[in-house]
Amino acid sequence: MTVDIENLIDGESKFVSFSEKISLPDAYSVNGDVLVKLSGKISNEKKGLFHFSGNIVAVLNLNCDLCLKPFNFKLDFPVNELFSRSIHKKDDCLSFSGNIINLEPVILDNILVNMPMKAVCSNNCKGLCEICGHNLNESDCRCEKEHINPKFEKLKALFEESENE
Ligand SMILES: [Zn+2]
Ligand SMILES: [Zn+2]
Fold this sequence. Notes:
Layout: E1 2-4, E2 13-23, E3 33-44, E4 49-63, E5 70-84, E6 93-95, E7 100-102, H1 104-113, H2 150-164
Parallel strand pairs: 5-6
Antiparallel strand pairs: 1-7, 2-3, 3-4, 4-5
C-alpha cells in the first residue's frame, strides 16, 4: 500500500484506494492475513508535507472473551495522518524519503488503536459454564447453577421432608 507522490505538485491532491490482504501480528487477529480496504486522498501541503485523510475497513477474526470462539469483527474508522519529507522530523508527522509514501505502518497502528477493549461475539453471548466449561450458546449443560434462590431452597427442603414422611 504505497503511494507515489512524485508528480503531486504543491497544493494538489489525489485519490488513493487499496483493497489488499495484509499480514497482521497474532495479537491483532486470529487469521494472520486480513483484507484491508483503504480509501481517501493524499494532499501535497507544500514544503514536503503530505496529508492523508481517508477511511479504513478491515474484518478481523477475534476470539470471543466470553465463549472463546473466533468471530468476525468489522472495523470501520477514519484516518488522518501527516507525512513529512523534511529532515527535521516533527512529532506529529511520520517521516519518509524519496517519492514513495508507505501507508502500511499507518494502517497497522490505526487498527491497533481501534481494536475493541472487549471482544464479544454477540451481545447475547452466554459464555462458558463456570463449572464444566461447556459453551452455553450451543446448549445448556446439566450443572447446578450456583445462584439458587434461598427461598426456593427452603421450599425444596420442605418438599423433601414431606416426601420422607
Ligand atoms: Zn461469545
Ligand atoms: Zn456446566
